[in-house]
Amino acid sequence: MKAVLSKVVGGPETLVVDEIDEPTCGPGQVLLSVKACGVNYPDVLMIQDMYQFKPPRPFSPGGEVSGVVKALGEGVTNVKVGDRVLASTGSGGMAQVVALDAGRLTPIADAMPFDEAAAFMMTYGTSWYALKDRGHLKAGETLLVLGAAGGVGLAAVELGKAMGARVIAAASSQEKVDLAIKHGAESGVVYPTGPFDKEGTKALAQLFKDACGPAGWDVAYDAVGGDYAEATIRAAGWGGRFLVIGFPAGIPKVPLNLTLLKSCDIVGVFWGAAVARDPKAHQENVKQLMDMYAEGKIKPFVSERFSLEKAGDAIAHLAARKAMGKVVVVTE
Known about the structure:
Layout: E1 2-5, E2 16-19, E3 29-39, H1 41-46, E4 64-72, E5 84-88, E6 97-101, E7 105-107, H2 114-118, H3 121-134, E8 142-146, H4 151-162, E9 166-171, H5 174-182, E10 187-190, H6 198-212, E11 217-222, H7 228-234, E12 236-244, H8 257-262, E13 265-268, H9 271-277, H10 279-294, E14 302-307, H11 311-319, E15 326-330
């Protein structure tokens, strides 16, 4: 079978497509014939040994997949051969066949395309956990989403709208803001490219204040990081909750006096660890997300599809911060 492999530390150009032996499934596992694999920012970091988890090489990137159950290991009863499913893999998803624990599988309806299924769990799972469990977003509150046209950002926009919040989309171009508005944001703001000096940070904060209004934001969803974090916190409303999602613009350094002046919280969001620590809560969240998908309240926006042979290009496209919505690698 074919698989995309990271054999050395480096960028997307170091990835190779090789023929390798098909895996076997042990007790409690299934073999999944992969139809599509979602591309996410952790893939960019993982191949450079910059992510929290470092799989032993050679490994295949790809943390979420969709496909058809091909074979069952001993003791598996929750699925059967031929079932359509999505799954979180952590890594290893950019291959034609993967072996994984049966508990990682979520059945999908026949009406859910494989590319949407592969673009679903990591973005909506992260954003639902962030907004509901960590940010405690309430109807009528103002939600500011940074990186609003990216995978997790666009999911946050849709979910915030579904939760009854007033959603303000912040992104690096008008095209991206327009996409977020199409997916449920009330309005948006285009922010300049950083890094920023002290005056630039204050000017960016004013942009966010003007966009949110005099009361500021109640919840901020920061999928960008870098100097954008301080500017965002300067625009916080009283008692705001600042959600730390990711750092494509770099790891922020925030003056903590701002949290005192705003009486606001800085809240970490580590969805993968939360899933491992409380799988029961995760399953309830998955059910809620699937219900919202069935009701048409949320729908993954797959902007581009790459073949398995072009998986390195897919990751490079994401690393360049050019992608809108989700990028997916398809095996057929």
